[in-house]
Design a protein that fits this description.
Elements: E1 33-37, E2 43-46, H1 59-70, H2 89-100
Antiparallel strand pairs: 1-2
Helix pairs in contact: 1-2
């Protein structure tokens, strides 16, 4: 069934294809998304916070983001998990909250 980790892959016809990951969790492998808005329609997003790319969001990531914020990091850096080009309390909070949910990478 759609949304299961064994769901059918997307076929790229003619070298081009597209999919809107934001409209439902069924388009992400393992339904590994979160609803971020419901008005005027449902919007889904990928989890953020695995700063060191080890497959799970944990204390190591929180510390990396915290260190980035205390060093006033700006720009396109891994610790900027919100994508606003500034590492600050918002990034720490998001990383902590996803860590508390035990968010992990799901792959085939």
């Amino acid at each position: 069934p759609a949304g299961d980790p064994g769901a059918d892959p997307i076929t790229f016809a003619g070298g081009e294809s597209s999919i809107a990951f934001s409209v439902s969790t069924i388009y992400a492998y393992g339904d590994n998304e979160i609803k971020v808005d419901s008005s005027p329609y449902d919007v889904y997003a990928f989890y953020s916070g695995d700063v060191n790319h080890d497959g799970l969001i944990n204390l190591t990531d929180i510390l990396s983001v915290y260190n980035g914020s205390t060093n006033f990091q700006t720009g396109y850096v891994a610790a900027d998990v919100t994508g606003d080009n500034v590492v600050n309390l918002n990034d720490i909070t998001l990383t902590y909250n996803n860590s508390a949910k035990f968010i992990t990478l799901i792959r085939p």
